[in-house]
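User: I'm preparing a small set of examples for a lab meeting where we compare how different chains pack in three dimensions. I only have the primary sequence for this one, and I'd like the structure in token form so I can line it up with the others. Please keep the answer compact; I'll paste it straight into my notes.
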Amino acid sequence: MTKRALVTGSPHRVEDVAASLEAAGFEVLRAEGLEALERLDAQIELGPGSLDAYVQLPVDIRADADSVTGQIEALLEHGILLRYRWAEAVLPLLARDAQVVLVPGNLPPKLSAPDDHRARVALLRVLAHAMRADRAPAALAVTVASSGSSAQELASMAQGYRVESRPDYANLWPDMDYDDWRLAVLGLASLEG
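Assistant: Understood. Below is the structure token output for the 193-residue chain.
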């Protein structure tokens, strides 16, 4: 029996991951948003337990506000909170032994707010815990991947394989000059190692 996976997120990332999942033998469904998921459900009649894997990729976010507060609001509303809504909609469709992969995103290109990569990843970890809690007492396998994970690595995670995670140092402090960045990363590496 062919396994079925759902991939959501920005179109350019969805295609790469979908191709890797298809190469692994999955029938892949793609949805860019909740409306697309509803249309997909109407076409295919997705029922409870019909998905063996769910890969939630980041979406492209526009933060046009002039203030940092407005930019952060856009990041939360159109990024993180939207991902919680997707997870809530997909949760009933997941099979008992389904694999879920949550992939952190990138900041909007014009965001002038300081980045807190750890906080963004922490919010995805909270989502992972919430999904597991909704499934309790049954178990749900949810992995928060690195934003630097390749499409092949994400497909492996969706199959239940453990992929060695690498710290995503390249995305930490992108506006810092190299010498200061190098010292900061070396400090982190010594703490993690």
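A couple of notes for your slides: The longest helix spans residues 68-90. The first strand starts at residue 3 and ends at 8.

User: Perfect, thanks.
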